[in-house]
Amino acid sequence: MATDLGYVADRSQGVGGRAPRAYLCTSARALDLSGQWRFRLCATAEGTGPGFVEDGYDDSAWDLLRIPSQWVLEPVTPPGEIEPRSVRGTAHGPLYTNTALPIPLDPPNVPTENPTGDHRLVFDLPPEWRQGGSVLRFLGVDSCAKVWLNGTELGHFKGSRLPYEFDVGSVLRRGPNVLAVRVHRWSSGTYLEDQDMWWLPGIFREVELLERPPGGFDDVVVRADYDHVNAAGTLRIEATAPGLVDVPELGIRDLPTGSAVTLPVEPWSAEVPRRYAGTLRSVGDPADGETVALAIGFRTAAVVDGRLLVNGRPVFFRGVNRHEHDPDRGRTLDVATMRRDLVLMKQHNLNAVRTSHYPPHPAFLELCDELGMWVVEECDLETHGFIYAGWEGNPPADPAWRDSMLQREQRMVERDKNHPSVVIWSLANESWVGENFDAVAAWIRERDPTRPLMYERDPSYRNSDVYSLMYPDLKSLATIGRREEPTPEGVEAGSTDDARRRRLPFLLCEYAHAMGAGPGSLADYQRILESSERFCGAFVWEWVDHGFNAYDADGEPFVLHGGDVAYRPNGGRYCLDGLVAPDRTPWPGLAELKSVVAPVALHVDAATWTVTVTNKHDVRDLDHLRFGWVVEDDGAAIVGGDLDVPRVAARSSVTLPIAAEIRDLAPNPPGSERWLTVRAELSAATTWADAGHLVAAGQGRLDRPIGPARLRAAGPQALPTSRTDRLSVGPAELDPASGRLVRLGDLELDGPVLDVARAPTENDRGQGPRNTMAATWAAVGLNRVQHRTDSVRRDEGGTVVVTGRSGPAAQRFGLRWTMTYTDLGGGLGLEVSVTPEGPWDETPHGAYRLTLPRLGLRFGLPGGYRSVEWFGRGPGESYVDFTAAALVGRYARSIDDLQTHYLVPEENGNHVETRWLRVTGDGLPTLHARAAGSLFDFTARRWTTEDLEKARRPTDLRDSGRVWLNLDHAQQGLGSASCGPALPERYRVPVEPTTFGIVLATTGNREDPPQRGVADRPD
Q1: Which of 871, 868, 1001 is nearest to 936 (CA)?
Q2: Are residues 585 and 680 in the same domain?
Q3: 430 is known as an active-site residue
Q4: Of 74, 211, 382, 510, catalytic
Q5: For 715-774, how does the pLDDT look when each residue is reduced to its tens digit (9 = 90+)?
Q6: In the predicted model, what is the mean pLDDT of residues 791-806?
Q7: Rounded distance between C-alpha atoms, residue 550 and residue 15, angstroms
Q8: Catalytic option among 377, 382, 430, 831
Q9: Is 271 a catalytic residue?
């Protein structure tokens, strides 16, 4: 066999294969060829040489490799080595880039150094297998494969995440069959697959041999339209061979293919995924025929008068972008993982998926049909790397690539055309512009006029039925809702394209970059998205962190990201940007998103004593939910019951009076807070959640809001006697030199220290020179502030006043502060006044003035403390722009459980709007802290902020032997600037004169809730 490698760089996406067709569930037999294959990895495209495709080739020295898989994630034997080893973390293993291509930008050529895997499988046909007409199907191979069966070359193909089939009936044989597949890591197809993802070569989806009966169906098209005016569905099944359709539930029997029938039906939607089971069976001799199982969903999608309508109704996507990822097997996912993903999405009120940036495994779409999920399906096409050449040579603008692009679109559309869940075809992602898109769009519109098209990156939107952008700021998004957005660059204002775009509905295809802590501002985005009929939804970036399970040199497990690979270019840890961890553990951002996009809004209005229930579903009423309420005083439940909600149609509201048993309650104790919480839960189990699953919650406060409080002294008293090395005030002792607390009652502690730093989040690090707050903080030294005590003095009434200054090295600006300690008769009042001085405004942060990460107090406590109980927002972490999931209540957590172990250590575990807290530990006095005037934030952890900032992985964090408690006046929000707009100014901590207070006390080692008294009494 002569080695001909021209196909590797050939622009063709396939030679020798069959025409693309639908993925069908049929009665015809299929042989799954998954399992252990023989494998040899070679450094170049020549592979092992010409003989490996032949029967007699000795592959006994080759590795065994499970298929499907990506060889860079499996133990393999590299050239020149004997023992198998993992290549994770090396240039021979998985590589991650975001936008840059990992090969020279020289289309369609690829480097000589082109890792190539030769695969061999010997298999026998099952008894009585019908050889004639048999088809060999590959569901996914990255990035280019050449295939031989029994020494006969079948052809080659590219399009990694798209199926490809070969007719093999003439070369199959009884007895052993030898299937040989040569897979190249790089090919011309690489230039069309520059998505933000890992480069993972291999046969990563199933390989199947399909028995094809002579009277069977090569392709089937299910047309199931819905007429919302008459509540009728029209069914027409088209097939490549004559057949008869049966749908027993609809009374359809022996409907010939090509014929249409119209009758009353229930439509399919993501909210009510109603499907009708049917069959398509061959005519003629049953022995030569085939039966195809049909799962029919009647559904019509269209853009009408500037709105996206499904079944005649406007829809709103509460969506996520989803890559396929498994922490051990990469893009080789099992069906159980796909189902788990969708169940988690449904449980968190998500109803839509954008398949970024390629068609998923076909089983995923079957699950979307079953469970109910709107799908924007995207083709396996992105040429982002050409941005570094000013888009010169970009394939969409080069006619030589036209057929390549068209073949990819055809393979997507033909495979998935029968899924009711797929309501929009997305032509590509981030591939700029070109006339090839005109050809692609024209073909799809002719082949499948039942779905709108989308392509975000072309500013003319001439091939898109929806307007879309990525990561706009809030102000820009609001102008889009009013159809007042600026004309995109490259489009003439007032032109036909400009006018057409303004008439289109808007779909926010990417926003709220879920990298690390956050994303923040989700409620702000949702408020705008729900304010205009133009908006048809949004997709958070993204669902899952793309990290791999790995072990460091000490055997410690960690999650490997792109930056752990010694290869450049490298996208670093930018692949860790999901709402769930690689093992599907939800991050706090998923709970926040669930609350923000909940399909039911519950608003408690204490002024009018009403509860308003708003149904945000597009289709269904609220009969599937039950509603309950509870009244709590300072987080302790006092009464609860059911809320009788009448029928509430989709996209409508009802306002109900608050129940008499709530209105007639005795007044809550002075200084306490009374809250009414209303919950909506599933009344019965579904395919994705049990009965009682929480869908939404709303709260309202039923008493007077907290007014400004002042710290009050305990009254006239004799001056306390101080030790020579201590200064006493009430229950506290201070160091007379530093003014810091050394004892509070029986508790030895250290602090407070004015704290303005936090370990940067991924969103603090931002993107670009004008949108990285962390870089500015480090540059000016806010993460290395030094402190000075200027004076410690006692007033005549016994109050102790400590003054000082805190500022970063090498800077003229700083914060002058005064801490005033007052005996409150068992408790210690602490009032803090902070005044900035120096040229703060002369140190800009991007387009904004310099602001503080936080402003508060840090205390060092004994390491024996174990738990925190508090009244405020919880139980999960919350920040000023991240509060939707954090209801006001009384909560208790261990200090260890307060931590969120993000894969890249960063600020976490904050809790806003805290009224009081207590910290407990065995054998230690209980420390109480209570808000005085304004509410406070708190964090508690066993390592310092400095340790958290230095840590590279969670395993780097070690118990310091102390508990570090922050009681903060404010901490800035989270935002999503890791890929998105800068944090809004209102969520920053301004540098301005500020006064705040706290009340501290200790009691004996008790495990009961704090009694109303010095630690939580009203002022």
Answers
A1: 871
A2: no
A3: yes
A4: 510
A5: 333 334 445 567 999 999 999 999 999 999 999 999 999 999 999 999 999 987 777 899
A6: 94
A7: 39
A8: 430
A9: no
